[in-house]
# Entry
Amino acid sequence: MSFADSMHHVGVGAKAANAIADAFGLALSAEPEGLIVAEVEGEAVGYALATGDAKRMRRKVFWQGRWLRMVWWLLTGRYGVGWRMVRVVSADKMAFLRGARLHGAHQARPLSLAVHPAHRSQGIGRQLFAASLDYLRTCGAQTIRLEVRPDNVPARGLYESFGFCVHGSYEDSQGDWLVMICNAAGL
# Structure
């Protein structure tokens, strides 16, 4: 599962799915306990992915060397993207990193949350998000940071209901991101 607009930004089809799967694989290899899956009748219908320490996750990914395989696969066509898209994705990553520096070095982060469209509006997203925040508290998080698109009203409402407040914004090739922060002790 992933957000359709994320898939279309990277590309379409199986090759884009490879890129998304490999990116998730990197995160899972560094912090597998950060993945929470929701199931209904034995079928995965949603997930939340979080990291208690984004810097530690980046270091683990770097030293494991899996990112080198992804670069090789990128260069050899596994992801089906050209150099233009490589530049766009690289620029987006740099915007993300600049945004992180501008709005504080909060290392505890929900990285991704998705619920299958057929299972939305049933409280599954709320349960997954609550479970990911519980996980981040067990990691010792003091503050938690996330990013959301300004026009994603349902997600913003969910995050605000848990005490997250807009702390700033930044822009990438797809548009604006709001930076939201919450004090973990208040959750």
